[in-house]
Amino acid sequence: MLMITVNKYKNMERILLISLVSDQTLPNVQLIKEFKEEATDFLFISTKAMEQKGCRAWIEQAADISNSPFIKVEQFSFDNIIEQLDLYDFSVFKRIIVNLTGGTKVMTLVANEYFKEMGAEIYYITGLTDYEYIKLYPGRKKQILSLSSSITIEEYLKSYGFSYKISAESKNSLAYTKILFEYYCNGLFNNFEASLAFLRGKRKDGIKASTLKEKPEVLNFLNEIKYPIDEGLLTSADVKYITGDWFEEYVGLRLKEELNLSDEELMIGVEMNKTSVALAKNDKTKLLGEQIGDNNPNEFDVIFIYKNKFYIVECKTSIINKISDPIKGWKEENILGETIYKADSLKSKFGSFANTTIATLTGFKEYIDSSPDKGIRNNRLKQISEQIDRANLSGIKILDKSLLEGTDSIFDLIK
Predict the structure, then answer these.
(1) Quick check: helix, strand or coil at residue 13?
(2) How far, in whole angstroms, is CA 73 from its chain's centroid?
(3) CA–CA dist 238, 242 (Å, integer)
(4) What is the 3-state secondary structure (H, E, C) of 377-408?
(5) Going from the N-terminus, what domains does the chain have, and what CATH number goes with each?
(6) Closest Cα partner for 241 from 157, 168, 330?
(7) Residue partners of 264: CB distance under 8 A and separation at least 6
(8) Whole-prediction pTM value?
(9) Burial annotation 60-70 (CB, 10 A radius, 16+ → b, else e)
(10) 66-70, 352-356, 374-378, 387-391: which has the minimum mean pLDDT?
């Protein structure tokens, strides 16, 4: 039998940390961080599917380790897993630490029995509380421990294969953004729908001073909201802020203030790409360094880490779009269902315990009751109720205007 040996460290006490790889990569990163100062070696037990996705590479990148050996097993074969483990020389290690949190159930069962016989330390990260992990073995009584270090947003995103860039925040203060919140909730924006529609068409390029002078109704709107115009023009960032980005800044900056979070713990306006790693055609056991994107960029309004938990907040000033109509003037489009669908489809990419919230300044009761037509009110109530039920089934929280206006703590609403 061919035995895989490791001779990198001949004259030092060797400590090995073993990670079982699955789609849930964060627990691997967490335990590697916990034992990084003690472990001299890292070993991954992986599968063909996980290698194709790049999960092991993501873990290494997030945990800031590289070139660790890995054992590729057939994920549902007891015999194959044991055979592959037997090829590795574990006798050179003074201490073995095993993270059972990942892998398939078969991989977990085999690894638990296999490494128990070696007297290894076996751990499991529950993910149910902020920092909890359990020492499963040795000892009959399962010892509940707390992780000593926190995960940053960057580490979290890397562990799930995301690269990202952050949109520049506006130069406006939280104090001014709170004023806009009051203006919007009091209905001031409703008086300037045409001006806002014009501005939305200028989000990419901004508005030159000469063009702005030709739009007195837009200038009137800017004066009403007391928006500071620099050199008589609006940059792209200005227009984006005025037409809705102010709300994500309001939510993000309030959360930052409430929870005393740093820039490493909360980000506003984040564009992300998910990546995967291609397998070499001529050698299925090796990975190419090249990464390939598996989807288009996704934009997130507010993301943050608090007590080792990951939160996403999608911010919509209104879930009722008003679209210009040549006959009726304006017609309504309810986008809450579309927003829930998007949030639900993205949630799974961030692990099992990602918390997702949709915040909107549409007041549901106010919207439903605003029509004098009973049939329209009933239809609106039915649609909103069905959408909220759909969100609840997906574990997505929805905050409307009445909730946001009535709270001193946004985090209390989403935790």
Answers:
(1) coil
(2) 30
(3) 6
(4) HHHHHHHHHHHHHHHHHCCEEEECHHHHHCCC
(5) 15-149 (3.40.50.10770), 247-414 (3.40.1350)
(6) 168
(7) 152, 153, 154
(8) 0.86
(9) bbbbebeebeb
(10) 352-356
